[in-house]
Design a protein that fits this description.
It is globular, with a radius of gyration of 22 Å. The strands form two sheets. A two-stranded antiparallel sheet has the order 1-2. The chain has a two-stranded antiparallel sheet with strand order 3-4. It has about 425 residues and is mainly alpha-helical. About 5% of the residues have low confidence. It has one domain. It contains 18 helices and four strands. A hairpin with a 2-residue loop joins strand 1 and strand 2.
Length: about 425
């Protein structure tokens, strides 16, 4: 039996990242082990332990929904499930700064493993996973244990786990991860149709006939994998109904800021798209960087992984590698973007364009599907049974980052480390 080798690249990545967090939190005043008070989820967990669905009182510094004289957490509940056991150990002083850090580090590990599955070399996989997590707005969010950042980072982790399980063909687990992600960020619903089409195309690959009846029966065969997500969804609906009398209301519509202006509206889209696509980082007369700290700026600067995924998608179109799953995935990425821009705000106070972090896993999934197709171009024996498993043919081609991609990785990490320091110290 072959002895399993220790992945020194992954160990080095984890050590460097941990050291980086220690240094950053030292700059911030020794905040790594501190409890951040912007933590609605710990408050909700404590309320659950007391047998209450409401918080019992208002917290003016948090986004609290007010309904029939009671005060509720206005966010979907999945992150509360993580904070709940921690309250038994730490009470209301949960180490949420460590929790968001761990979300980021575990996500980087999962991304690294996924990239190895698609045959990236170890060093390139480490660099690209670092760009995706630590070279994006996820880095700044992972230094602050506030309610908003817990939700976004746990959502990112769960969606990457869904990608990992889908590539392993563990369908029930993949769908379950997406269902839990919806309880962090509701627009993660867009991932369901992508996985559905991905699994459907995989099943149809070996079908001799691909008529309507065959497609329908193959589609229906996935229903058993949706049982767990259906149970999770029913749990969300029951909680919503118990609190607000509606299965679709999780609290945002009862925030004071949305009582006069609607939370969502098509009229918000033009300005928000302008913020994300046409608002750039500039310089003042002293050569200092200038950028808005409310409602975001150019997403390709804030999250440069989109430069790599966008360029790869164009390249895949030219090379005729794009299939139906990649098209559906791209459409759903755009769907998340438009749905996000239909919101009254784009994340309020922040560095970069933090809401667009929610698009990264799906954009990367499209990118990964393109690389899987590239693996089998010009191979002498394109056997169907080789497409989804490790074979000697696959081992002949490994992906590495080119010079431009390496520069993007370095820039993304440097820029977001700068942003985390500037925003946390209130220098802008």
């Amino acid at each position: 039996m072959e002895k399993k080798r220790i992945d020194t690249t992954l160990i080095a990545l984890i050590v460097i990242v941990l050291l980086g967090y220690i240094l950053m939190h030292d700059i911030f005043g020794g905040t790594l082990f501190a409890h951040n008070s912007w933590d609605s989820y710990t408050l909700q967990a404590l309320a659950w332990r007391d047998g209450r669905l409401d918080l019992g009182q208002n917290y003016s510094y948090l986004e609290i929904a007010v309904f029939e004289g009671k005060y509720y957490v206005s966010f979907p509940p999945t992150p509360t499930l993580v904070m709940l056991p921690l309250t038994f150990i730490f009470g209301n002083n949960t180490p949420n700064n460590i929790v968001v850090m761990l979300y980021a580090i575990i996500t980087a590990i999962v991304v690294y493993k996924v990239l190895l599955m698609v045959n990236f070399k170890n060093i390139s996989a480490a660099c690209l996973s670092s760009l995706i997590v630590f070279g994006s707005n996820a880095l700044w969010m992972s230094t602050v244990g506030g309610v908003w950042f817990q939700a976004q980072l746990l959502n990112m982790l769960l969606l990457w786990l869904a990608i990992y399980f889908s590539l392993k063909d563990k369908r029930a687990a993949a769908y379950a991860m997406v269902a839990l992600a919806v309880g962090c960020r509701p627009f993660s619903l867009f991932v369901f149709p992508v996985l559905f089409v991905f699994f459907l195309m995989r099943d149809l690959k070996d079908k001799p006939k691909k008529d309507f009846r065959s497609i329908l029966l193959t589609s229906l065969s996935q229903l058993k994998c949706l049982i767990i997500p259906a149970i999770i969804g029913a749990g969300y609906m029951a909680l919503n109904y118990a609190r607000f009398g509606s299965v679709f209301e999780f609290g945002h519509n009862y925030l004071p800021e949305f009582l006069n202006d609607p939370q969502f509206g098509l009229h918000y889209i033009p300005q928000n798209l302008k913020n994300l696509l046409l608002t750039f980082v500039g310089f003042n007369d002293n050569g200092q960087l200038t950028f808005p700290i409310f409602n975001g700026f150019f997403l390709f600067i804030a999250n440069p992984i989109f430069i790599i995924t966008f360029a790869a998608f164009i390249r895949d179109i030219v090379k005729k590698r794009v299939d139906i799953t990649m098209i559906v995935s791209t459409v759903c990425v755009i769907g998340i973007l438009i749905a996000t821009c239909a919101h009254k705000t784009l994340g309020g106070w922040q560095f970069g364009a933090r809401y667009t972090v929610d698009m990264i896993p799906l954009a990367c999934f499209t990118y990964l599907l393109g690389r899987k197709k590239e693996l089998f171009e010009n191979m002498p024996i394109p056997a169907p049974e080789c497409v989804d498993g490790p074979t000697s043919l696959i081992q002949k081609k490994q992906f590495t980052l080119n010079a431009a991609e390496a520069v993007i990785c370095a820039f993304g990490i440097m820029f977001n480390v700068y942003g985390a320091i500037v925003i946390n110290l209130g220098l802008k």
